[in-house]
Amino acid sequence: VFSSFHTAFKVSFHIDKQQQSKDSVFFRDGVRRIDFVLSYDDDKDGERKQERRKVYEANLEKVGLELETEDKSESEDGKTYFVKVHAPWEVLATYADVLKIKVPFKVNDIPDNSEMPMNWLSTPFRLPEHVMHPEPDFFTAPFNKSKSDFFLIDNKDTFFPPSTRNRIVYYILSRCSYFRDECAEKDKKGIKRLLNNGTYTAAFPLHDSRYWIRSRDDKCESERYNLYKHWARFLCFFKEQPLNLVRKYYGEKIGIYFAWLGFYTEMLLFAAVVGTICFIYGFLTYGDNQWSEEICSDKIGGNIVMCPLCDKKCSYWKLNTTCNSSWQSHLFDNVGTVFFAIFMGIWVTLFLEFWKRRQARLEYEWDLVDFEEEQQQLQLRPEYETKCTNRKMNRITQEMEPYLPITSKCARSCLSGATVLLWISLIIACIIGVIAYRLAVYAAFASIMKDSPTAHLEVVGPYITPQLATSVTASCINFVIIMILNLMYERVAVWITDMEIPKTHLEYENKLTVKMFLFQFVNYYSSCFYVAFFKGKFVGYPGKYAYMFGWSQLRNEECDPGGCLIELTTQLVIVMTGKQVWGNIQEALVPWLMNWWGSRKARNHPESLYSRWEQDHDLQGFGQLGLFYEYLEMVIQFGFITLFVASFPLAPLLALINNIIEVRVDAWKLTTQFRRPVAAKAHSIGAWAEILNGMAVLSVVTNAFIVAFTSDMIPRLVYMYAYAPKGEMTMKGYINNSLSVFNISEFPEFSRYRDYRYPPGHEKQYSHTMQFWHILAAKLAFIIIMEHVVFIVKFLVAWLIPDVPADVRARVKRERYLVQEYLHNYEVEKLKIQLSQNSSECNCTPMIYPSLSKHEVLSECL
């Protein structure tokens, strides 16, 4: 009995100790913090992988890292080994010096005058002070190990935050060799290669706690819990984001993304309000739409017979069948459209300029002012170092570094460019294929749905149903093509970017960003560009229609009866809304299902035995391209609300609603569904800024052309001011004026079609009338005037708004001045101490030099 009791006591003690250690983020001793975790399965590994791990871990210990291995018998699944990595102070200090990590040396003494007037209005939207600003503001300087006493080091264990610690450890892991003879195998290094060849199954830093409960360890911060409670829950959608905590926990790169997304969402509020007002204006002027009244009238629209919309298989139809689409078109095609197009051209400039100011403030607050130069010089990609065998002197650092010969660089760039052009051509070919499908299938549907020879004059007619069937099937095919090509885009873009061997991580991401955006731009916007600028523009006229590629079966499409603008609006709403809804569902549902499936076995065990590293191991990896797709999604949305916003003023409102959800969905999945990403620095949104600038300029041009050529606004204004009856400024008679005449034998009267051409019997029959040229001149004049007005305002606004706020410039100068002053005083004090120590050993005394001061005597002694 005593023996059984003693055994039970030992087992109970062991379980309590196991629970305590496994629920924390420390080694078994409870002192050394786990900065990184490596995992592997040893059951089916060969000797080669075991040797790699043995050498790699031995080399990690040589550089000063401390390792602790959890045997597979201690793991929940019974087959996974976990190697816990800890970086002691000496390693952290050494690499903080190498990476020039900025750390505090003095409390900021500049008064904060950033408080806005009537700040109490924003109180309901603010988070508690301890969440937003958990630490005081400091002046910072690059860490120098030899001057460690210069910095404010209260506790060496907590001086470097966990995000900085895991960034330093990952830097070491990425450059540590796993081959005994490093000179013989230069490319045998880095954790990425070990993950790719299956030596390790995962490598990740730990979350500091569970997201739904605080850590049981008093030494742990539980920042993940705070992020979930105050940021990731949807009920916090009206609250500001705790960006400082996001930056502290995930690093500057993720912090800058959420700062940009939040700022973009805030600016969308103004665009959404103005767009909604323009839509309401169209709704309130619904009854003043005289041309729609004429279309719907039985006396006017009911007596106008229109030419068939396809050859042979399509019938004639009456104009009043387009009554509903004409009324709907007025909601978006009105005078407010012109105003909103001009407003959005100015809004996008304000958005980009104010973001530059916001970004400059974050750069200062997050110690990123001089980061780009440091990154370009110091943080080379491990792949670049291993693949570039040639070396040359760096003129800045005066050190030998690897480089890629110019001939190899040009050859790789040419091959990359050719591949990009090939894939863009493939996308365009697919779009052309879909257009050809629409042209061919429309006639087939029209033929199938034609009931009788008399159906060509009935209101139900062969137009609406075949058009709807064609649009639905073509949209489904286009969606399938987009999804298939999207799956291939990533692999191709990553492959050609890897082939170029970029020098730094920033350069790699910028190159990949440009390639992926070009693909997505062509993929998502091609159909909108086709409807806006090509459909209905090259139709010809009865008896001389234009055909695609000259094929008699593929007659070029005409616009919808309500005009091309309403079709562009419809397509924009479907593509934009569908993409956003599907994207949010996919972002939230897919990682949750994968995590549920991966951790289903662990749910049968007590959570206290389900260790911190095992919990994180069962989560999804954030991946190298995690933020890339988030940016890409938002930039594609930005294109929808800027490039084609003249056709749909409610687009900013839909984007605003989506982004309010997007912020919380991204925060939720990052906090609860993904492993903690390796902290990374970024001083800006990278190449996305240039892409946004380019789209801002292009949006002015596209909206001007949409108003001029896709909308009917200019023809109506020309008619009202120049061709209205008896000089009256009225739209009465516009419909009859805008339709040309064609002589047919089936009816005693003429059929009509949309164009400005002379009627049969005229000496210039079927040639363009003078009104056509007047309208064309008015369209071109409108484009020139609108572009010049918007661009002048854009450049004026950009010139008036400085990129860096005045107070930030002053703070940067103040900090640089203090760094120099404090370093000078530090060196002087250090010299005094040295002189005092040397004076006790010096044989020289003031008696020998009676005319010299004590300081001069010490100088003479030295």
TrEMBL record:
Q: Where is the Anoctamin dimerisation domain?
A: 26-243
Q: Name one GO molecular function term.
A: chloride channel activity
Chief localization? membrane
**Protein name according to UniProt:** Anoctamin
Q: How does it sit in the membrane?
A: Multi-pass membrane protein
Q: Where is the Anoctamin transmembrane domain?
A: 246-815
Q: Which domain of life is it from?
A: Eukaryota
